[in-house]
Here is the input.
Amino acid sequence: MSEILLVHGSCHGAWCWRDVIPLLEARGHRVRAIDLPSHGDDPTPLGEVTLESYAEAILTALEDRAVVVGHSMAGYPISVAADMDASKIARLVYLCAYVPKAGHSLVEMRKLASRQPILKALLRSEDGTSFSVIPEHAREVFYHDCPDEAVDYALDRLCPQAVAPQATPVTLGETWAGVPRSYILCEEDNAVPVELQREMAREFPDVRSLPGSHSPFFARPQALADLIHDIAQEA
Here is the structure.
């Protein structure tokens, strides 16, 4: 079976994979989820967070050759990590995630979409260095089909998100281009519009889909685990 590393998106932490990890472990996989710098239990101050530090955290977490799954924002750091050193990355899996376009930051990629549904749920800090999720809009944008318990669980754990990693332009090289990759679309995503997901995944050789929201790890963990398992088997 496979080594699998799960990487969360903006404002989240390793905690968001709580329902997926045991399902993958039951299939025999060795599974880890990490907190990126300043997320979850990681004590890094927001002002010290960079896109490179995210990528370095991912590379540090890799013990053996692994399938690396990145959700949403994590599409950028998993890509940068692979471009820095792909020796322990068997495949990249983008879960409704941003895929870097040459010379574009994540913020610039988001603006390529014809609509911006995520903005209603985000509040920028006064100093402009971070943003947070507005609780009253969280369900609509991120968790519309998730169980009430899971939404409450998430709202208790969401953290501020540093802006710097998302404002950093990226141009990837041949190392990243040589890594096999898959994309998992979320068809009713109210955070990253599905039409933008399709465009970002247009040249991917392997594109799969799930019904529902931006948070399939809560809404349909079994279906998500099944997809990751199938992808890992092929890897």
User: Anything to note?
Assistant: Strands lie at 3-7, 30-34, 66-71, 89-95, 122-124, 130-133, 161-162, 181-186, 206-210. The two ends are 10 Å apart (CA to CA).
